[in-house]
């Protein structure tokens, strides 16, 4: 069920009797797991677990679950047992806000991983900040979430000190995409389309500015609506514009259909997008060959990172039904960052979870630094990841193939 609370049963050994207690008592007291006192700490997860983006959401949830299980297995934080409570936002901002309120209400929750969508995050940030509850997104890329609404004018102000992310921002991704399309792919005339959402519109704007600065021309712009399927009018505009490429700011459900309908007009040109389209479903959504379509994604390919080998093996061994998908590695690292912050807070409090655990976890997150699945995990003064690695992917043979990875320096 979408908003069901996680009920954890723990075993208490008392004079030979077996007693079952629920950790959802919200009193923060230690629970006896039969092997000594354990304080239950819950890591919340918010993601689209159903709907068109569920492939990404399930990967987020499972990866955080794996981090919690790994921490428990290795006794990463002595005296602490980690549990996960995952809530479904269906990629809807209002649902995310309701989930944030619910997670805040569970006193055992000391940190939250998520959400996927930047627009959902905008509705959650204030709720978490008012409760001093840390939020670490593995996928949000809109710059304003961490640098304020005037970041584009060079005025940087962190709105909420409870917000962190393991994904690089669209400032990095949009510029990286423009540079690849103009310099590497040799495209000079691009048609730009976005889905009018926070993520898509923001990414498209950053891409367009950089593409024009490089000397390229934006020959036309248009917008599509999320969950619609007929983009033929936009496809016709692309065809008549004479564009040699298309840039799409949005997610794979619309991106795949748009690419398909553009090619059906006879415009044999590549469509490029951000990490929102870098999913196998983008390719399968099209009845036309996607050969040559491009995307950028945060970080290097997880499968090629030596630091991700154990994660991939453990994820497979855990038997999760869904793949870790595009944000699995970043989700594991986000969950592990919360775990490391809890570890620091406990160590500083004589081995016990402090009464103001949420505030202490926020404070500790700003100082977290470790080698994660995706590389070095640490946060700057805005709560943004210090990892600026990106990759360009191209559709070849019906699959996304990485063609260029680099570290972007603004």
What does this protein look like?
- The chain is of the alpha/beta class.
- The protein has twelve helices and 17 strands.
- The chain has a seven-stranded mixed sheet with strand order 10-9-11-12-13-16-17, sandwiched between helices.
- α1 links the parallel β4 and β5.
- The longest helix is centred in the N-terminal third of the chain and has 20 residues, at 54-73.
- The two termini are 44 Å apart.
- The model is unreliable at 1-27 and 29-34 (pLDDT under 50).
Give me a quick take on this structure:
The protein has helices spanning 54-73, 93-105, 118-130, 144-147, 170-184, 198-213, 232-241, 252-264, 280-284, 309-318, 328-347, 357-365, and strands at 9-14, 17-22, 30-32, 37-47, 80-88, 109-113, 134-137, 163-165, 189-194, 217-223, 245-249, 271-273, 294-298, 369-372, 375-378, 389-396, 399-407.
What labels would you give this structure?
single chain, 410 residues, alpha/beta, seven-stranded mixed sheet, six-stranded mixed sheet, 12 helices, 17 strands, 24% strand, elongated, disordered N terminus
Walk me through the topology:
Layout: E1 9-14, E2 17-22, E3 30-32, E4 37-47, H1 54-73, E5 80-88, H2 93-105, E6 109-113, H3 118-130, E7 134-137, H4 144-147, E8 163-165, H5 170-184, E9 189-194, H6 198-213, E10 217-223, H7 232-241, E11 245-249, H8 252-264, E12 271-273, H9 280-284, E13 294-298, H10 309-318, H11 328-347, H12 357-365, E14 369-372, E15 375-378, E16 389-396, E17 399-407
Parallel strand pairs: 4-5, 4-6, 6-7, 7-8, 9-10, 9-11, 11-12, 12-13
Antiparallel strand pairs: 1-2, 3-4, 13-16, 14-15, 16-17
Helix pairs in contact: 1-11, 2-3, 5-6, 7-8, 11-12
């Amino acid at each position: 069920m979408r908003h069901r609370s996680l009920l954890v049963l723990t075993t208490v050994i008392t004079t030979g009797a077996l007693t079952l207690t629920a950790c959802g008592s919200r009193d923060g007291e230690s629970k006896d797991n039969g092997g000594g006192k354990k304080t239950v700490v819950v890591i919340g997860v918010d993601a689209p677990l159903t709907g068109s983006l569920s492939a990404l959401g399930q990967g987020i949830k499972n990866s955080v679950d794996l981090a919690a299980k790994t921490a428990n297995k290795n006794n990463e934080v002595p005296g602490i047992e980690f549990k996960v409570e995952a809530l479904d936002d269906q990629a809807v901002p209002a649902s995310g806000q309701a989930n944030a309120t619910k997670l805040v209400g569970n006193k055992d929750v000391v940190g939250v991983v998520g959400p996927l969508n930047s627009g959902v995050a905008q509705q959650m940030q204030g709720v978490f900040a008012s409760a001093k509850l840390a939020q670490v997104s593995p996928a949000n890329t809109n710059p304003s979430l961490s640098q304020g609404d005037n970041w584009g004018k060079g005025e940087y102000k962190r709105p909420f000190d409870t917000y962190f992310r393991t994904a690089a921002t669209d400032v990095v991704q949009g510029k990286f995409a423009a540079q690849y399309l103009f310099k590497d792919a040799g495209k000079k005339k691009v048609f730009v389309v976005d889905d009018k959402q926070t993520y898509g519109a923001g990414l498209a704007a950053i891409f367009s500015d950089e593409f024009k600065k490089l000397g390229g021309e934006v020959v036309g712009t248009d917008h599509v609506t999320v969950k619609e399927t007929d983009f033929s009018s936009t496809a016709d505009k692309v065809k008549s514009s004479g564009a040699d490429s298309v840039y799409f700011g949005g997610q794979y459900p619309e991106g795949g259909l748009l690419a398909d309908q553009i090619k059906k007009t006879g415009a044999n040109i590549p469509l490029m997008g951000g990490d929102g389209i870098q999913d196998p479903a983008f390719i399968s959504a099209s009845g036309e060959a996607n050969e040559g379509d491009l995307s950028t994604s945060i970080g290097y390919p997880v499968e090629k990172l030596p630091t991700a080998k154990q994660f991939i093996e453990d994820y497979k061994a855990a038997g999760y039904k869904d793949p870790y998908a595009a944000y699995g590695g970043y989700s594991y690292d986000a969950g592990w960052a919360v775990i490391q912050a809890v570890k620091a807070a406990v160590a500083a409090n004589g081995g016990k979870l402090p009464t103001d655990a949420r505030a202490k976890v926020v404070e500790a997150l700003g100082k977290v630094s470790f080698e994660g699945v995706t590389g070095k995990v640490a946060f700057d003064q805005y709560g943004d990841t210090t990892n600026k690695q990106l990759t360009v992917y191209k559709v070849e043979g019906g699959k996304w193939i990485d063609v260029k990875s680099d570290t972007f320096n603004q």
